[in-house]
Design a protein that fits this description.
Layout (H helix, E strand, L loop, with lengths): L5 H9 L3 H12 L4 H12 L6
Helix pairs in contact: 1-2, 1-3
Length: about 50
C-alpha cells in the first residue's frame, strides 16, 4: 500500500472547509512547504494554536 505524501494529506484537509482551504492557499502563496503547513494543521487539530 502506498503512503500519502504531505501534499496529498494537505489537499484532503483543505477540502474539509472553505476556511481551511483559504488558509492553506495563503500559506502556499507565501512559499511555505506542504509539510510545514501540514504540521501546523496537525498541531491545531490536536489542541494547539488556532490557524
Amino acid at each position: 500500500m502506498r503512503q500519502s505524501t504531505p501534499a496529498e494529506k494537505l489537499i484532503a484537509l483543505a477540502d474539509a472547509s472553505p476556511k481551511v482551504f483559504d488558509w492553506v492557499s495563503l500559506q502556499l502563496k507565501a512559499g511555505r512547504k506542504p509539510s510545514q503547513i501540514l504540521g501546523d494543521l496537525e498541531r491545531t487539530l490536536s489542541g494547539g494554536t488556532q490557524c
